[in-house]
Amino acid sequence: MTSSVRSNSPTREEFSERLLRGSVKKYYEPVVDIDWDAPLDPDKFYLPPKLVSLYGTPLWDTMTREQQIELSRQELVNTLSAGIWFENILNQGILRKLMHEDPTSNATHYALTEMGDETRHMVMFGKAIERMGVKPIAPKRYQRMIINAVPLGFKGSVLWVAALIGEEIFDSLQRQMMDDPQLQPMVQRLMRIHVTEEARHIQFARDGVRKRIDDMPRLNRWWISTINGIGGPFFRYIFSNPVMYRRVGLDWRQARRTARRSPHRHEMQISGFAPLAAFLEEVGLMGPIARMMWRRSHFLPAKTPRVAVEAPTGPAPDEVYDGPANIKVSDEEHAVRVRLTGRLDPVDGKYHWRGTVFGALPEDVLRRPEALLTANGRTAAARLTERTPQGGYSVTGVGAPPFG
Ligand SMILES: [Fe+2]
Ligand SMILES: [Fe+2]
User: Fold this and answer.
1) If you measure from the C-alpha of residue 38 to the centroid of ligand 1, how many angstroms do you get, rounded to a whole number?
2) How far is the CA of 303 from the centre of ligand 1 (A)?
3) Domain with CATH 2.30.110 in the chain
4) Domain DUF4873 spans what residues (predicted)?
5) pLDDT tier at 399 (50, 70, 90 boundaries)?
6) How far apart are CA 306 and CA 399, in angstroms?
7) N or C: more exposed end of the chain, with fewer CB within 10 A?
8) Distance CA 396, CA 277 (A)
9) CATH code for the part of the protein at 12-296
10) Which ligand is located closest to the Cα atom of residue 202?
């Protein structure tokens, strides 16, 4: 530990060492950690219904339960297939980067450990697809060539931002869905394994970005804060792949149009992207063009911030909320007291709020600082940033606040 006052700001080497220790303590071998022989329940979903792209639309209501389950199966296969080639290019990017790095450093060793995790995930996803008895969804030849060329551009912080885009959205959706009782137990297990190991990858990537951000040349910063917006249309394309709808026997054009316009779907996308959006805002890597691209593909809420539209009922500027709240961290709820305030930032047009959480939270809460904070009956994604010297936790968030 450094002698720095901010005990939660270890060096890259210390941080990597911590992750290495965590990897030794808790990791999975999916070949043996999932019961591949257990029968699949014909009446259970492969994704929770609310995360299937057509859920909440009139088209969904016309489908039989059997068709709905089949669509969930095809959508999971689509996601796992995309996951496999994403992890493939991430590993390619990391391996190329390591050619230039010190082979004795903890950061290199953790990067290699992460690659090992990803190779096991690819085996796990491949086995799951096979177990479900569905053909994987393969990109076309020209698409594979483009995908394979992408990691050549993964230099410096681009690699870590790309890793976050590929990992965080799936991660936050998986967290929301892995405990759904309507889900096939095999899928629940797979998600639990993936979420556990990805949590470390996300911390490593976020730390990588944070450590570089201050010294990043302006042009690089502009480039990264602009290019990340491609993630929006890219995920919209992947998540409404015609192949899934065709396999279920739906008119794929109608199905895709319906999914892309579904307000429920938009809400799911926005909640999946919220933690990463908050991080990109926090480190100053959400440029106006990127913000527009994420917004147009419905991963960010519509342009006018909700708090501004709801100004009469929303918190007034500088209003302080001091009272009880519930905070959910690592799937556990804790009753706490919070003192929060916020303001609408005229530069990015968003409501930024922050404050302190008073109460006992798990010892290692800052290692996985994403939280859901509920106060006054409203819930918002939050981030615990540090332990205060007085025994509380600093908390921040962007968007509609959990008070007011
Ligand atoms: Fe993974
Ligand atoms: Fe990962």
Assistant:
1) 23
2) 32
3) 309-398
4) 318-403
5) confident
6) 8
7) N
8) 13
9) 1.10.620.20
10) 2
